[in-house]
Amino acid sequence: MNRQVTKAPMFNRVARFLLRQLGFAYFRLQVDGLHRIPARGPAILAGNHPNVLDGILLLMVSPRPVRFLVTEELFFHPFLHWIFEGMGCIPVYRTKTNNGDALRAAVEALERGEVIGIFPEGTTSDLGRMRAVKRGVGLLTLRTGAPVVPFGVWGSAEAYPTGTRLPRPRPIAIAFAPLVSYGRTTLDPVPTVLLQN
């Protein structure tokens, strides 16, 4: 059964403000290139994923609300679910019957002019280097024409090492690169079966 996510604009604004104050104070966040995120219209933020903190960090610093694609295991985590749901994040179901839900929701959000966040590796790169990237970013930008804003995260793995209960107050840096625009393709790159109910 698909579980619907209810977007809560007021919660989004309040949560982003509180998370931002906490994040900059606790992690001494250094951010560069925020002006590269378009002020309006659809956009896809895509970057490396060294740690589970990364999505929350991007929610903190982005000047616009970001709807991140989050694996169902993390989205429904008992302690983090309220944050992800309140921020309008999109759960990615790994089951065969539901694996098109996230892609369809992301396409719809981009067509409404929203910002989507995605980690092309599909999981955290806890190997100390990026894993092979998946095709989600390419499919979304070619289908919708939305530009891609690449970003990099450094220090999140050191701030929240695997096996620790709470993040440590370590410096974290996030940088956004110039956007890349591919344009909408005349051929639909997204298999129709993935967008069907």
Descriptive labels:
single chain; 197 residues; alpha/beta; seven-stranded mixed β-sheet; 8 helices; 7 strands; disordered N terminus
Largest sheet: 7 strands, mixed
Q: For the residues shown, what is the average pLDDT?
A: 80
Structural class by secondary-structure content: alpha/beta
Given as residue ranges, the uncertain stretches (5+ residues, pLDDT < 50) are 1-7, 193-197
Q: Order of strands in the sheet with the most strands?
A: 1-7-6-2-5-3-4
Binned strand content: 15-25%
As a whole number of angstroms, the C-alpha radius of gyration is: 16 Å
Total of DSSP H or I helical runs spanning 4+ residues:
8
Question: Layout of SSEs?
Answer:
Layout: H1 9-27, E1 30-32, E2 43-47, H2 54-61, E3 66-71, H3 72-75, H4 81-86, E4 90-92, H5 101-111, E5 115-118, H6 136-144, E6 148-154, H7 156-159, E7 173-176, H8 192-195
Parallel strand pairs: 1-7, 2-5, 2-6, 3-4, 3-5
Antiparallel strand pairs: 6-7
Helix pairs in contact: 1-2, 5-6
Q: Would you mind describing this structure in some detail?
A:
- The chain is α/β, with parallel strands linked by helices and 197 residues long.
- The chain has helices at 9-27, 54-61, 72-75, 81-86, 101-111, 136-144, 156-159, 192-195, and strands at 30-32, 43-47, 66-71, 90-92, 115-118, 148-154, 173-176.
- A seven-stranded mixed β-sheet has the order 1-7-6-2-5-3-4, sandwiched between helices.
- It is globular and about 50 Å long.
Give me a quick take on this structure.
This protein is α/β, with parallel strands linked by helices and 197 residues long.
